[in-house]
Amino acid sequence: MNRRKLGKSGIEVSAIGLGCMGMSEFYGPSDDRESIALIKKAFDLSITFFDTADMYGVGHNEIIVGQALRDLPRDKIVVATKFGNMRRVDGANLGVNGRPEYVKAACDMSLKRLGLDHIDLYYQHRVDPDVPIEETVGAMAELVKEGKVRFLGLSEAGSATIRRAHKVHPITALQTEFSLWTRDPENGIFATTRELGIAFVAYSPLGRGFLTGSFKDKNQFAPKDFRSVNPRMSGDNFDANRKLVDRVEEVAAREKVTAAQAALAWVLSQGEDIIPIPGTRHEKYLRDNIAASELRLRPEVLRSLGDILPPGSAAGTRYDETGMRRVGI
């Protein structure tokens, strides 16, 4: 596995990480034992960067990630988690919280669930519009001083917010959605992160699985699967976007790779500072993703993929109206 620098932290991580969210909810049923085994297998296959959050499964995801990682050498893995999206025990969304006192309480709870004495990379999951970013990051910086956190990150923050946060304490990574069909960061975010030496962690680099070509029919999603109501994967948008993925599959077939590998290789090719974290619950797809990290598609192939899905070409927004109000702040 190739490795990439995590901003200015001085450490390197595997060129792709493992997003663990789907092991708890949002993408249909899962099995804890299989999830734990997959995380361990990912490490065996050279993945060293593992991503979770306190809101995934209302704490459940941090628990299973912690159970899996406790058997692995701590000094060889980088654990990232997030705070800020509050939920009730029943899963109901309670909004975003960036208040300093909550930052510290959330970190303590995450450490307990993970079974760790420190978190390597601690993100604010969404920016709280009602709390100055300086106050939130100030509280996060205190966690670094206390040894509970090593490095700080933001998720889905806008350029102005990133700059303000970075003045309070160095921001090591920005985690934001980026893929062939979500190219919003090209409009200023990359310029900001690169100027400041901040790593870009790309979540959903395979379009929540849609860019793999696996979904042929909008009725294919399991009950309670978030994707069944996602604007890009429902109604007429599904059919319009499916036609675009057909073209990605055609390019991939000519190169004798899967659509997923082509899409992931494209993300990786957009800069050495970009670290995608595709999620999966299956070893087969895990191995396919790892193989993509070694692909070197010809420049004309990469251009062809980018031309199929230029910025703004995907039908529908990536979240519903409420979700979209919480990004780019």
Describe the overall structure.
This protein has 329 residues and is of the alpha/beta class. The chain is 38% helix and 16% strand. It contains eleven helices and twelve strands. Strands 3-4-5-8-9-10-11-12 form an eight-stranded parallel sheet, with helices on one face. Helix 7 crosses helix 8 and helix 8 (259-269) packs across helix 9 (283-292).
Key structural traits:
eight-stranded parallel sheet, about 325 residues, TIM Barrel, two-stranded antiparallel sheet, alpha/beta
Q: What's the layout of helices and strands?
A:
Elements: E1 3-5, E2 12-14, E3 18-19, H1 32-44, E4 49-51, H2 60-69, E5 78-83, E6 85-87, E7 93-96, H3 100-114, E8 119-124, H4 133-145, E9 149-155, H5 159-168, E10 171-177, H6 189-196, E11 199-203, H7 235-254, H8 259-269, E12 274-276, H9 283-292, H10 299-308, H11 321-325
Parallel strand pairs: 3-4, 4-5, 5-8, 8-9, 9-10, 10-11, 11-12
Antiparallel strand pairs: 1-2, 6-7
